[in-house]
């Protein structure tokens, strides 16, 4: 086989590996018990060589999971020991520092043997709805309060599941059937990946993955370093302030572009918070790498080699490098703001490339439902844990508007109302786009949402808020206006906090206004046609069209007439 033919064959194999891990991820979506996996896609899947280096990742999944998991497999190999790795094994952990950042992520790794020889590993991660402890939220003062900890250990050895482990897990969580079901789903999806890999190896006559691994990693590293080498050799700083739990948090970063790497240094960032919004370095690294890769090399495949030139540094004890036993349950809140902080610096080096700030962190909440306590409850009242994923608007891009109710940087999907209400006795009374929430600009920020949340008759609930942008809305870029802030209250006007567990009595509802993304560029430069289209579609009100974009009363009347006539000229 000539070198040219060899390279062609390796490229075919590379594409096949990506399809293998995507099938692996889709198997997890189809078999998982938790709605966070089935409906929101809060998962990841990947294939690794015998050294634990990520070769390919699934398209489905989140960068926080997959980029953190890129470091995790080496921990599994070290903890288990190569002498204890057997065919049919499955390994598990939810270690925040050797997994993906908090106890609510279960990571499973399975060795892949071909003709009796270890050729690589498959790994996958899923967010699970409950892991015991205080429940999913920011209220804990240490990781010990946040739930059951599973060190890196064997879920199964030579095909036999550790039933003692299963009993311990079932005895410590609120939703044992869901959690154990998800663990089996994770193990199954790795098995699907293994089967497809061995089929591929048989088809191409491979005895190991050494050749294809070298091809993938060498080409990815070369492409990434070439891309970095073409950038200006400059240093820039960026920062942003977010709500925090009780006091604001400042994230600071210094970006240095060298010939063959980019250093991202978070020195100067706020220290640890007393509550569970702290972020382990592995998760900070995941989103810092993701931000840089999106901006400078989005088309280069994501693997160990393409990530290696991104070097991430943060002093221990800062909120982006939390060490044990810091509480880290809501590490995503800080982690999801890392890209916007990095972009504040990168925009000074590469103007016209990165978007304005968006909602940032997911607008999640968890509802812990139980029979009402203020009066007799109906016999069919239930106890249930319902986690729902929602999004504010993303920031406007240099050439395009921000996306409405779309999560950046996580990419996690919003859960459908039907799936949320099926999971327990919760009712979503309202869920619609929030007009005027996207920041004005030449390119408009994405819209947030209105939501109204209650419970079925006979239930009260604890509402676990996980929001930010209440006091610090998304900032515009290049003259763009800020997005709308988050607002939260009960339907009787009782104020609620943006974070923490809060009691909602029987009959009350929670009223949410989720944040919008910021605008990009001067609103005066927005084409009149685009302003009219936004008004026609209800994205902005007449007041905003007049105030922010200078649309005339005559044009507004024309659009309003079209709305009354049921026409959409756009």
Automatic annotation (TrEMBL):
Domain named Hydantoinase B/oxoprolinase: residues: 8-523
Pfam families named among the record's database cross-references: Hydantoinase_B
InterPro entries (UniProt xref): Hydantoinase_B, Oxoprolinase-like
Domain of life: Bacteria
Disordered: annotated segments: 475-500
GO cellular component: cytosol
An MF annotation (GO) of this entry: 5-oxoprolinase (ATP-hydrolyzing) activity
Entry's Gene Ontology BP terms: glutathione metabolic process
Protein name (Swiss-Prot/TrEMBL): N-methylhydantoinase B
Lineage: Bacteria, Pseudomonadati, Pseudomonadota, Alphaproteobacteria, Rhodobacterales
């Amino acid at each position: 086989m000539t070198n040219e033919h060899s390279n062609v064959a390796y490229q075919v194999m590379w594409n096949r590996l990506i399809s293998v891990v995507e099938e692996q991820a889709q198997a997890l979506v189809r078999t998982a018990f938790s709605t966070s996996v089935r409906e929101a896609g809060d998962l990841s899947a990947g294939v690794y060589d015998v050294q634990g280096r990520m070769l390919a990742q699934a398209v489905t999944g989140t960068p926080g999971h997959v980029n953190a998991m890129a470091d995790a497999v080496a921990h599994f190999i070290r903890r288990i020991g190569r002498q204890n790795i057997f065919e049919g094994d499955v390994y598990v952990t939810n270690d925040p520092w050797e997994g993906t950042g908090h106890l609510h992520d279960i990571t499973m790794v399975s060795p892949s043997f071909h003709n009796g020889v270890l050729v690589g590993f498959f790994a996958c991660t899923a967010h699970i709805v409950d892991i015991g402890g205080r429940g999913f939220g920011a209220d804990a003062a240490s990781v010990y309060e946040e739930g059951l900890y599973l060190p890196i250990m064997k879920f199964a050895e030579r095909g036999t599941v550790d039933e003692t482990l299963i009993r311990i897990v079932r005895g410590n969580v609120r939703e044992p059937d869901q959690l154990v079901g998800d663990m089996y789903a994770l193990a199954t999806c790795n098995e699907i990946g293994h089967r497809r890999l061995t089929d591929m190896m048989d088809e191409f006559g491979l005895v190991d993955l050494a050749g294809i691994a070298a091809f993938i990693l060498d080409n990815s590293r070369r492409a990434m370093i070439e891309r970095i080498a073409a950038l200006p050799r400059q240093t820039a700083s960026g920062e942003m302030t977010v709500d925090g739990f009780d006091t604001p948090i400042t994230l600071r970063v210094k970006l240095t572009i060298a010939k063959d790497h980019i250093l991202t240094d978070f020195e100067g960032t706020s220290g640890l918070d007393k509550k569970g919004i702290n972020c382990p370095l592995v998760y900070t690294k995941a989103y810092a790498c993701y931000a840089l890769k999106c901006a400078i090399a989005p088309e280069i495949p994501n693997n160990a080699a393409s990530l290696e030139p991104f070097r991430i540094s943060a002093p221990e004890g800062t909120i982006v490098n939390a060490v044990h036993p810091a509480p880290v349950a809501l590490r995503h809140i800080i982690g999801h703001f890392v890209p916007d902080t990095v972009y504040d610096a990168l925009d000074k080096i590469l103007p016209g490339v990165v978007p304005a700030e968006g909602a940032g962190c997911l607008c999640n909440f968890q509802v812990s439902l139980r029979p009402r306590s203020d009066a007799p409850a109906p016999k069919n009242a239930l106890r249930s844990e319902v986690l729902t994923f929602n999004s504010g608007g993303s920031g406007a891009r240099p050439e395009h508007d921000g996306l409405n109710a779309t999560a950046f940087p996580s990419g996690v999907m919003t859960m459908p109302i039907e799936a949320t209400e099926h999971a327990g006795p919760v009712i979503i009374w309202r869920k619609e786009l929030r007009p005027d929430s996207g920041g004005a600009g030449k390119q408009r920020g994405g819209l947030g949402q209105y939501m109204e949340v209650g419970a079925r008759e006979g239930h009260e609930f604890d509402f676990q808020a996980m929001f930010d942008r209440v006091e610090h809305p998304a900032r515009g870029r290049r003259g763009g206006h800020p997005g709308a802030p988050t607002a939260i209250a009960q339907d009787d006007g009782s104020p609620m906090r943006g974070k923490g567990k809060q009691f909602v009595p029987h009959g009350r509802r929670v009223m949410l206004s989720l944040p919008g993304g910021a605008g990009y560029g001067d609103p005066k430069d927005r084409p009149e046609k685009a302003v009219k289209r936004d008004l026609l579609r209800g994205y902005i009100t007449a007041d905003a069209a007049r105030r922010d974009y200078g649309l005339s009363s005559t044009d507004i009347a024309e659009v309003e007439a079209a709305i009354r006539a049921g026409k959409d000229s756009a």
